[in-house]
Design goal:
221 residues, mainly alpha, 7 helices
């Protein structure tokens, strides 16, 4: 076990836990960016300078786009973070990391990457079903990163082309989720993808008197 890779893996999982557990948009985005930046470093040997630069730029760009979109949300960008809290999310990640480390010797990669990849997968799945635009983006980005890290744990370091493709994909996801967040705020006044309030009333519809149905009176014979 490499102490340096272990420290980097802990940093990746710490950022991911903050991203999925935070109830405000900006801390969640900062945690996501930390996880995306540190994830490519869980490899031996480390990637070349150009792929690492591309990943850094993609992670910062995705976070910046999300930051701009969340800035318009009311209540400091309240998001549907984990109801169980970060300690439970951290325990789930730790348990998955232990299992992944035990399975790490089966492939040609390093067990640290297998451990981090499995833990990221466990953290990425719940946000996808929370009905929150930002959390859907967080879960999608973490899941893609988890697949990439698992691939490193199974087959060894990724090529420069794979890093460039992953960078473009993460940047595209950041842009798409930023548009989704902006649309959710514009239509519902919050980060909720679907309106969950009783009666289905939306903030944009409140105070608007419903129109009477048009009808045609019958003519007497």
């Amino acid at each position: 076990m490499s102490p340096a890779l272990a420290v980097i893996g802990i940093a990746v999982l710490a950022g991911a836990v903050v991203a999925v557990a935070a109830h405000e948009g900006r801390p969640a985005i900062l945690g996501l960016v930390l996880a995306l930046i540190a994830a490519p470093l869980v490899a031996a040997p480390l990637p070349a300078a150009l792929p690492l630069t591309a990943r850094l730029v993609a992670a910062i760009l995705a976070g910046y786009l999300l930051w701009i979109a969340v800035r318009a949300a009311p209540a400091h960008g309240r998001t549907r973070g984990s109801r169980l809290g970060w300690p439970v999310e951290a325990l789930v990640a730790a348990a998955a990391a232990v299992v992944g480390f035990g399975l790490g010797g089966a492939g040609a990669g390093n067990p640290e990457a297998m451990s981090v990849g499995l833990a990221l997968t466990a953290l990425a799945l719940p946000p996808l079903v929370r009905g929150d635009a930002l959390q859907v983006g967080v879960g999608t980005a973490l899941l893609i990163t988890a697949v990439e890290v698992l691939r490193v744990g199974l087959a060894g370091p990724a090529s420069a082309l794979e890093h460039l493709v992953s960078s473009a994909l993460l940047a595209a996801i950041g842009a798409a989720v930023a548009l989704l967040v902006d649309a959710s705020i514009a239509t519902g006044g919050s980060l909720e993808v679907a309106d969950r309030r009783p009666g289905g009333a939306r903030p944009v519809d409140e105070g608007i008197e419903p129109t009477r149905p048009w009808y045609r009176p019958r003519l007497r014979r």
